[in-house]
Amino acid sequence: MRHDDVHNWNPPAAGTKERDAMPQKAFLGPDKSYPFMYENAEGEWVESEQGLEAARTAAQFQQNRAVFEDATRRLNKIREARGEEPLNMDAFDVESNKAGVLVELYCKNLIDEANAIIDYTKRIKKAQDAASKNIFAELRHDELGHVQKLTVGLTEILSGNEPLQAERMDGFGQNKGDKRITIECRDPENTIQELLEHLKSIGNMGHSFKVVVDPGDPGHMKEFYVDGDGPDYFYSIKSDPQSKNRGAGD
After folding, report:
1. pLDDT for res 174
2. Which of 42, 67, 226, 236 could form a disulfide with 59 if both were Cys (CB 3.0 to 4.6 A apart)?
3. Residue that terminates a domain, selected from 123, 158, 193
4. Of 20, 108, 34, 107, which Cα lies nearest the Cα of 64?
5. Pairwise CA distance, residues 164 & 150, whole Å
6. Based on the domain organization, do 148 and 178 belong to the same domain?
């Protein structure tokens, strides 16, 4: 029996009022990142085994060792109580485990989307008026679109492709808000490119999240919200390493 087998893990997206209302103790990371608790019927905040697994997987992919180890320790206590083998604390190297980590992330998100579709289908059947039925039908349609994105990404990984470099242009120009942004920059350590590719990888899975720039400096700090579970989507990121804008002093 799972630690929380009657609970479906589906935490509020980052930047939402529901997420902000959750206590900080329900998160493994700062600024309400890596949620792992949920409020049960008695109003108590308790650990979710599914939440811990999701946090551990995300931390491994995002190279957050502290959260990865914290989640692993908590999961191993649960597993020990059931007489199961502990998880490997040393399995942090994301490069050697990248494909497996990505497959797990995509599969977890597909399960979440499937649960949401089931929930909206039930709500449609229970709705008493046409307006409510239409609202839930639209929400279900959005979730089906997320499933399609996730399936494409999972297929790319299983085919041996690198999803971070996949330059998919299908659908570009056919949706409201589509735009092409050109960036010319000096990026010798590839940090700017890696940042954009990381946003693409996480957002295109259907994740919504908050990006905080320079959180330690009130004068420069600014928050941005990427609605990966909604309309925001990266069609492609292209880099031309041969393009160089040399100044007179180079």
Report:
1. 67
2. 67
3. 158
4. 34
5. 13
6. no
Whole-number Å distance between alpha carbons of 250 and 237: 27
If you write DSSP's letter for every residue of 30-85 in order, what string do you get? TTTEEE-EEE-TTS-EEE-HHHHHHHHHHHHHTT-HHHHHHHHHHHHHHHHHTTPP
Is residue 7 in some structural domain? no
- Rounded distance between C-alpha atoms, residue 118 and residue 10, angstroms: 13
Domain range for 207 is 168-250
Beta carbons of 120 and 140 less than 8 angstroms apart? yes
Residues 57-92: tens digit of each pLDDT: 788 777 788 999 999 999 999 999 989 999 888 777
What pLDDT is attached to residue 159?
57
Largest CA distance in the chain: 72
pLDDT digits (tens, 9 = 90+) for 115-134: 888 988 999 999 888 988 88
User: Are residues 195 and 243 located together in one domain of the fold?
Assistant: yes
Q: Final residue of a domain: which of 134, 158, 182?
A: 158
Residues 222 and 118 in one domain: no
Q: Are residues 184 and 119 in the same domain?
A: no
Query: How far, in Å, CA of 85 to CA of 137, rounded?
Result: 43
Length of the chain: 250
pTM: 0.44
How far is Cα 153 from Cα 167, in angstroms, rounded to an integer? 11
One-letter identity of residue 111: I
- Give the count of domains, the chain: 2
Q: Which residue, among 168, 172, 234, has the nearest Cα to 204 in the 3D structure?
A: 234
Residue in this structure with the two tokens 């997987």, named with its chain if needed: 57
